[in-house]
Structures
1.
Amino acid sequence: MSENKEIEVMQSVYDKNDEVAAKINSALTKSGIYAINVMGAPGAGKTTSLIQIIKRLTDVIPYVIEGDIEADFDTKTLQALGVKAIQINTGGACHLDSPLIGNAVDELGLSNGVLFIENIGNLVCPAEFMIGEHAKMLISTVTEGSDKPYKYPLAFEKADIIVINKCDLLPYVDFDEEFFMKGVRALNKTAPVIKVSGKTEEGFDKVVSWIMEKVK
Ligand SMILES: Nc1nc2c(ncn2[C@@H]2O[C@H](COP(=O)(O)OP(=O)(O)OP(=O)(O)O)[C@@H](O)[C@H]2O)c(=O)[nH]1
Ligand SMILES: [Mg+2]
C-alpha cells in the first residue's frame, strides 16, 4: 500500500515537470533557440567540452546555464571567455528541473542561438527529467570505464549524441571500446558516438557539425 502511494507521488512530480518542460521548449523554439541538455558524471569534462564547442561555433550565439549543487567556477570561466552564462545552484538537488530552467531562461533573455544547459554532474537523475531541451548530449569518458552503458543505461538510452572524452588518456587506461559500443547500441541505435579530447582538442569539429545540422 505504502509502495503504491510513493509511485503516485513520483508520477505526479514527473508529470508536472514535463508539463513545464514542454512550455519552455515551445517558448525557446519560438525565440529561435536550440537547447542542449549536457549530461555526464562529475568531472567528465562537460565544461571543458562546452568551451571547445563554443569556440568553434560560427554565426550562432551561444548561451550557457550552468547547474551545480554549489559554487560558480564554471560560470565564471565561461563569462571570462565572453560567453553569456548564468549559474543555478540547486543547494543539494542532484539534477536540474524545468521550473529552475524556466526562471534562468527568463533571466538570460535569449534569442536566436544555442542554449547549452550543463546539468549537475551525475550519470543517473539528470536523464530522468526533461528541462525544455531539444536534444540531450551525454559526455562519457575513457577513464570512467567501458561498462558504464550497462550500469547507467538511462543516460545512454536517452542521449541524442554521445561524446567520449579524455581520449588522450587511452594509452593509460584499459578502455574496451568494442564492449562500450556493444552496450551503447543495445540501448540506443541512432545517437552518433564521437571520440574527443578536451586536452588535444581532437574530435570537437564533428560535434559542432552535428549541432549545426540540428540548428538549421
Ligand atoms: N586529460 C584530460 N583531462 C580532461 C579532459 N577534459 C577535461 N579534463 C580535465 O578533467 C577535469 C574536469 O573537467 P571539467 O570540464 O571541469 O568537468 P565537468 O564535467 O564540467 O565537471 P563538473 O562540472 O564538476 O561536474 C579538469 O581538470 C579538466 O582539465 C580531457 O579530454 N583530457
Ligand atoms: Mg562543469
2.
Amino acid sequence: MSTRRVEVRTQRPYELRLGRGIAGESLAAARRRSRFAVLTDERVWALHGERFGAGDAPVVIVPAGESSKSFARLETVLDALAEARLDRKSCLVAFGGGVVGDLGGLAAALYMRGIDVLQCPTTLLAQVDSSVGGKTAVNLAAGKNLAGAFHQPSGVWIDVDLLATLDDADYASGLGEVIKSAVLAGEEDFARLEANAEALLARDPDLLLDVIEACVRQKASVVESDEHEAGPRRALNLGHTLGHAIERAAGFGRVPHGVAVAVGMQQACLRSAQEGVLQDRDLPRRLMSLCRRLKLPTGLEELRESTGAALTEGELADAMRLDKKGAVWILPVRLGEVRAVEPRRPS
Ligand SMILES: NC(=O)c1ccc[n+]([C@@H]2O[C@H](COP(=O)([O-])OP(=O)(O)OC[C@H]3O[C@@H](n4cnc5c(N)ncnc54)[C@H](O)[C@@H]3O)[C@@H](O)[C@H]2O)c1
Ligand SMILES: [Zn+2]
C-alpha cells in the first residue's frame, strides 16, 4: 500500500507521511545524515524497539509517562546526545508519544543551538496532534509546558500499525482530539465519525489512516497560517480551557489530556448555548452521543464518577485562572465554526 503525504508549508517546509508499517522509514531518512540518535520511552521501546530497527545507533530511553517532561530529564537527554557525539548536522529521531515528542523536540531545539528532529509518533494523540506544528516543551513546578520552544520537525512518519498496542485509556485520549478536529472541520468529518464509531473503536487501520490524515491536514493548514499561535491557531484550543483546568485540578496525569478535552468540548457547547452563541441546537446531543459511543465521558459528572476526582466548580475556576493562555473560551457556533470569547472579568 502506498504512503500518503501531506506537506506543511511553514518557514522551513516539511512533509508528513502516513501509512502502515512505515516507522522504520524515519530511520532511513536519519541515516542519510552524518549521525543520529533515537529518543524513546521504556514502554514503546519494549514493545516496538526491535522491529523499529535502529541497529547500532545510540538510543536514549526515558521512563514512560509525563514525569519525563522535566528539566532534569532534558539535561540527561542533552548529555546523552553529547556523549553520542552528535554534531550540528546530526538529527534526533523522537520515537514515542507526546511526551517523547515534546521532550525530544526541545532537546533538538537546544542541542548545539538546534539540530533537526524527525518525529515518529506512536500514540493516537501524538499522530493527530502533538507531532505536527513544532511546539515543544517540558513542565515546571508551576505548571505544564512552561519552558519550551517552537521547533518544527524536519519530517513526520505516522505509522498507524503502532496503535494496535496502545492501552484503551491512551487510545480514548487520542479520540478526544480526533473529535475536536472533526467539530472544527465541519459536518462531513463529524458525520464520518458518527457513521464509523464502532470501526474506529476497533482501530480499523484504513479508517484510521483517513481520520488521521484529515486531522493532520487541518492542523497543517492552521499551523501554516499561524506558525507561532498569534491568532487562528487558537481555534485548536476548543475544549482546552476547561480541559486544562480539569487536568490541573485532578492532578496532572490522572485524567488523560484528550479525555479532559472531550469533556471540555461538551462543556463549551453548553456554555455556547447559554451565551446565545450556538446556532446548531442539535450539536450538544450529537457530541455527547459520539463521546458515549467512543467510550469517552459524556460530561463532568461522569468524569467525576469514573475518576473519583472531586473537580468542584471552585477548583476548576481556580485552575482556569492559572491557565497561561488566559482562559479564552472557544465556543462552537455550529460544526465547522467557532468563536473565541474572552473570559468575563469579575465585577
Ligand atoms: N506539542 C504539542 O503540540 C502537543 C499537543 C498535544 C499534547 N502534547 C503533549 O503530549 C503529551 C501527551 O501525549 P501522549 O498522550 O502521547 O502521552 P505519552 O507520550 O505519555 O504516551 C502515553 C502512554 O502510552 C505509551 N505508548 C506510547 N506509544 C505506545 C504504543 N504504540 N503502544 C503502547 N503504548 C504506547 C507511553 O509509553 C505512555 O505510557 C502531554 O505531555 C501533552 O502536553 C503536546
Ligand atoms: Zn490537546
